[in-house]
Amino acid sequence: MSNDDGLELLSFYRRMLLIREFEQRLDRFFADGRIHGTTHSCTGQEATAVGACAALSASDYVTSNHRGHGHFIAKGGDPKRLMAELFGKATGVSGGRGGSQHVADLSIGFLGSNGITGGGLPIATGAALAIKIQKRDSVVLCFFGDGAANQGTFHESVNMAAIWKLPVIFFCENNLYAMSTPFACNFPIQNVCVRAAGYAMAGEVIDGNDFFAVRDAVSAAAGRVRAGNGPCLIEALTYRHCGHSKSDGCEYRTRDEEAAWRLNDPIANMKRRLLQTAAPAEIEQAEREAAGMIDEAVAFALQSPPPDTAGLEDSIWVS
Amino acid sequence: MSNDDGLELLSFYRRMLLIREFEQRLDRFFADGRIHGTTHSCTGQEATAVGACAALSASDYVTSNHRGHGHFIAKGGDPKRLMAELFGKATGVSGGRGGSQHVADLSIGFLGSNGITGGGLPIATGAALAIKIQKRDSVVLCFFGDGAANQGTFHESVNMAAIWKLPVIFFCENNLYAMSTPFACNFPIQNVCVRAAGYAMAGEVIDGNDFFAVRDAVSAAAGRVRAGNGPCLIEALTYRHCGHSKSDGCEYRTRDEEAAWRLNDPIANMKRRLLQTAAPAEIEQAEREAAGMIDEAVAFALQSPPPDTAGLEDSIWVS
Amino acid sequence: MAEIFYSQAIRDALREELLRDERVFLLGEDIAGYGGAFRITRGLVEEFGPERIRNTPISENSIVGVGVGAAMLGLRPVIEIMFMDFITLAIDQLFNHAAKFRFMFGEQVRLPMVIRTPGGGRRGYGPTHSQSLETLFISMPGIKIVAPATPHDAKGLLKSAIRDDNPVLFVENKTLYGMRGEVPDGDYTVPIGKASVLREGRDITLISYSQMVHECIKAADALAADGVFAEVIDVRSLNPLDMDTLCESVQKTGRVVIAEEGHRTGGVSAEIGFRLFESLHYYLDAPIKRVAAKDVPVPAAPVLEKYVLPDWTNVLQAAHEILAEN
Amino acid sequence: MAEIFYSQAIRDALREELLRDERVFLLGEDIAGYGGAFRITRGLVEEFGPERIRNTPISENSIVGVGVGAAMLGLRPVIEIMFMDFITLAIDQLFNHAAKFRFMFGEQVRLPMVIRTPGGGRRGYGPTHSQSLETLFISMPGIKIVAPATPHDAKGLLKSAIRDDNPVLFVENKTLYGMRGEVPDGDYTVPIGKASVLREGRDITLISYSQMVHECIKAADALAADGVFAEVIDVRSLNPLDMDTLCESVQKTGRVVIAEEGHRTGGVSAEIGFRLFESLHYYLDAPIKRVAAKDVPVPAAPVLEKYVLPDWTNVLQAAHEILAEN
Ligand SMILES: Cc1ncc(C[n+]2csc(CCOP(=O)(O)OP(=O)(O)O)c2C)c(N)n1
Ligand SMILES: Cc1ncc(C[n+]2csc(CCOP(=O)(O)OP(=O)(O)O)c2C)c(N)n1
Ligand SMILES: [Mg+2]
Ligand SMILES: [Mg+2]
């Protein structure tokens, strides 16, 4: 991980673009009314997803939340099947049953996005307990938001992970808002990380829009966690370019704040860095590839058949 | 409060004895099978209850937990009606419906003991919110145990109290065990108070077996809290002489540990201090009075009629 | 009489009660500026300020507990749980605290508290944002339950709920927010515990509440086209249940369909149906049928969601099956 | 065959499954040294160690969530919730996570997880320690429910539950822990989803589960003394329900009492009763009656608790009322 060969970086750049492109296409499909329901776009937060997963291996696990498309793709999820899920097709990650907030792919260690704010924290803790009991050396990375940090499950789960010294990284994407509520209204403190000490846990605040800062923090953490030192908390400061969900006009934040954050776009940051090592042509190619993969994903979703209702009721049980 | 006139101290001493005597009689009634169900005795923890309530006024409020007999009596509750409640009589604090873990007396600001570990924390927070909205200058003191501090409600409630700067004192009776589980098995930290900083809240650890330490800490805290500085956390170290509940043989702790703590008996401590200011005769009189009041309470409970079942179903609603 | 949206009717009721009684205040996630996920409380913070339209962190169980504590001291909290699915987090404060305090503490306390929350699917939100969980509450004594189907009842029942001295679960419905209906001018209330007969009929009784009422009306229209006259009853209150109104109708028609959007097994229909069977056994010309969601989570994909959730066609089919039984 | 306590039967099942399958482990508050509030797991930590008999902090919702996460990775957690009343805190992880993951994630996951918890009153513990909340679970697809009445079924059903690849709620009962009964030697299981006919009879069917089964047997004895032969059926599994066995009996007797310790309104009896009414309407000689707790919290005072909770005398009375009809 530590020495960055250009090809690898290009692939991470492509993956960030893939996420951005995925979310932007989705927005259009919702706008056209070709997809209904709702979605929580993660544009602007691509570096947390890709940076964190870049520091994990295939045998590691991730739990996610409602804003999980980026996490899924970053962990190696197939954009085709995710797009199909959003179109409600049989080929979707969850066969169309889950939709945007409810996808899991155990084959890549993606233990599920989650429609319940804070719901993923105990699940990540339980997965880490299983790893410890099974004496494997995997780690679990739990993505959650600043808002989720005020759910009781945060407190209960982090405490259990700490007393049992479980291999889990609690990774908070602090994008400064929980839906419409600014961090300062939900917290009496400056950072979520202030709470790490309450669980005798290491905690650090990092720049969530810098792929390298995220990746390096997570790989260092993963090393400590794998070594059996117990959980840790990483708080990545970031910002969603979009609204909370489809129906959000963002009246609760200023256009100036948004503009300032757009100057700190994780993808632009990555590109600037890449230009030092890669040729512009390579970079453009990565950009074309990303767009192309999303075209494929859309085509795949559109061609896919709707789910079959036959046997739906029986599928509630493992028999 | 600050200058201790002897009479006042004697009355607090009497109240501590009252609690001790109350719990010890109860033990016998359970042993005799004259009361069934179960109870959580607070013998050994009289200084936290009486010390904390000594620093509150009649217009202040208390929320309690499953180990609440002492809290109730300390806040000014009538031992007669509490005894009657345990005997399941119509004259009981809750008319016999609640039993040991479910008594409230709004006329004295006792907002209820609670059978759900951690259940009282949001209730105390809500009461404090009401006080703030009503612009009154009362405070709420929330008694909870070390075990309760790991419930999600602790985290959620303390956070809300902190962001809203509510007049509530979170008073943790850390008696070193949650049922059979030692503090160190439930916590990755040395003290509950370590968590206060996570809510930008003052936190202090005090000697819970020293009436004066408890009372002075709570009156100082009440002053700050009343002044609008937001909640605080007081962690009083104490120890229950008895088992967790009726069926507990205390195999999880050593006889030596118990003996050591008995040397630090809150009532003996108070008596030693009293002997400096009060005459032995006065002290003996207080002791006789306490025993006498419990005799009365028992007589009252025994004479009281059982609750009436008529109209029980309709009493579920306020009409 | 003005024609307004169901969402507006709720907002009006909240506003009028906030004006009428200073003890009333709102508590919930993103209810202030944002107006909540469905914008029901939009505009109220500008008028009443952040103390009375109070945003909370994401902490459902303690939000309800805070409401209980505030109500014990005489305030009248109206809590919004953003989606009914999230009330699962607050069941302890609702069932072991709010529901029990009055009885358990010997009738000392009053808990005037309302929990507003939208249930229902048909929006493609998926399994954790589409549930109808009201049936969980009917087995817990101490919490009243209302589930209005029209703007008129939404406003009138919400006012009754806010003025009630007991905890009340006020079940809204996402697909009804955009529905328009006539609402009287000025102050009025709809009593908790009274069903309403929306359409009189002699041949069969269609019983439901909330969104399914409109599916029953559609089914009744289709039946009328075949000369079958269905009586359509909106239960409105699930606790207490107005069995008198239901029994009166069933004694007349002898045939019953009960429809709800929640899961078939263990639903509200089982309770209503059992009571009708029990007390009107000899009046029934055919067994009661219930129409409800299939016993699986509510899927996100439109074709699956439509398959799982009941609509007027299921009501119509059940009615036909019943009518077929001589 | 050995005669052992219900509590011992549960302990034996746990021990044998812990020996049989290393993926099985126990999670709960004070279950290790202390053995839990009712000492069911006593002695197991000495044999299996603190990793497999794992004490947790007091954090019910996350304890269940930890179980879900561990099960997703192939372990088979058996969780103890000290009193059924406290499961109210874990409803979100149970209903929005454990119950939905398999279906919602397109059948990728298996969640072999058991939640053991004792329900029931009659111990004077008061409103928050005496509830029978199993009815909350029957309306949530995705969680099986069993509620054994005897040591034999307790051991056999717990083994089936632990070997099942779905979440199973295993409902114990405080007053049954001290009950003795015959248990086969060696390994055996009782299938989930099968009711058992404890006593054959032709005149009336008494249906119940858990502790109320014994009240029904007492009532059947009293009826037998009057020459009335009651068939006594223990449902044992509340989800899935074995309607075949119930229907077969009711077709024979035409008369039914359903008894449970939970609240009357919205109880398990409503669901079972509705299904019987629906499918056997024309076989019933009289309306089904249900026997259940009154719709108030379970009080602590003995005289009140006895008044609120149902017992064999209520079953007997209901049976007499039914037999009195025509
Ligand atoms: C239990 C629960 N409460 C509320 C919601 C509604 N909700 C969805 S996302 C969200 C905000 C979450 O904020 P944060 O954790 O910071 O994540 P972000 O949306 O900022 O990525 C809320 C309130 C929910 N889905 N689940
Ligand atoms: C929600 C809930 N979980 C578990 C219990 C069982 N229980 C009663 S008291 C107790 C221990 C509480 O420990 P602590 O808070 O330290 O109080 P202490 O008993 O030491 O005074 C437990 C686990 C309960 N009553 N409620
Ligand atoms: Mg956020
Ligand atoms: Mg303790």
Helix run count of chain C: 12
| Beta-strand residue fraction of chain A | 5-15%
The chain pair forming the largest interface, with residue counts per chain, is: C-D, 50 and 50 residues
Major sheet: arrangement of strands of chain A: 1-2-3-7-6
Q: What is the helix fraction of residues of chain C, given as a range?
A: 25-40%
What's the shape of chain C?
globular
Low-confidence stretches of chain C: none
Strand-pairing-aware structural class of chain A? alpha/beta
Average pLDDT reading of chain A:
96
According to DSSP, the number of beta strands of chain C is 14
Strand content of chain C: 15-25%
Poorly predicted regions of chain A are none
Order of helices and strands of chain A: HHEHHHEHEEEHEHEHHH
Multimerization status:
heterotetramer
- SSE-based structural type of chain C: alpha/beta
Number of helical runs of chain A?
Answer: 11
Kindly, what is the distance between the CA atoms of the first and last residues of chain A, rounded to a whole number of angstroms? 43 Å
**Ligand list:** thiamine diphosphate, magnesium ion
Biggest pleated-sheet summary of chain C: 7 strands, mixed
In total, the number of strands of chain A is 7
How would you characterize this protein structure?
- The complex is a heterotetramer, with two copies of chain A (319 residues) and two copies of chain C (326 residues).
- Chain A has a five-stranded parallel sheet with strand order 1-2-3-7-6, sandwiched between helices.
- The model of chain A has no long low-confidence stretch (mean pLDDT 96).
- The radius of gyration of chain A is 19 Å and the shape is globular.
- Chain A has helices spanning 6-32, 46-54, 69-74, 79-86, 120-133, 152-163, 183-186, 211-229, 255-262, 266-274, 280-303, and strands spanning 61-63, 140-145, 168-174, 177-178, 181-182, 202-207, 232-237.
- Chain A has eleven helices and seven strands.
- In chain A, helix 6 (152-163) links the parallel strand 2 (140-145) and strand 3.
- Chain A is an alpha/beta fold.
- By secondary structure, chain C is an alpha/beta fold.
- Chain C is 37% helix and 21% strand.
- Chain C is built from twelve helices and 14 strands.
- In chain C, helix 8 links the parallel strand 10 and strand 11 (230-234).
- In chain C, helix 1 (6-20) runs parallel beside helix 7 (151-163), helix 3 runs parallel beside helix 4 (91-98) and helix 9 packs across helix 10 (268-280).
- The longest helix of chain C is centred in the first third of the chain and has 15 residues, at 6-20.
- Chain C starts with a strand and ends with a helix.
- Classes of the chains: A alpha/beta (319), C alpha/beta (326).
- Chains in contact: A-B, A-C, A-D, B-C, B-D, C-D.
- Chains C and D meet through helix 4, helix 6 and helix 10 of C and helix 4, helix 6 and helix 10 of D.
- The structure holds thiamine diphosphate (2 copies) and magnesium ion (2 copies).
- One magnesium ion binds next to strand 4 of chain B.
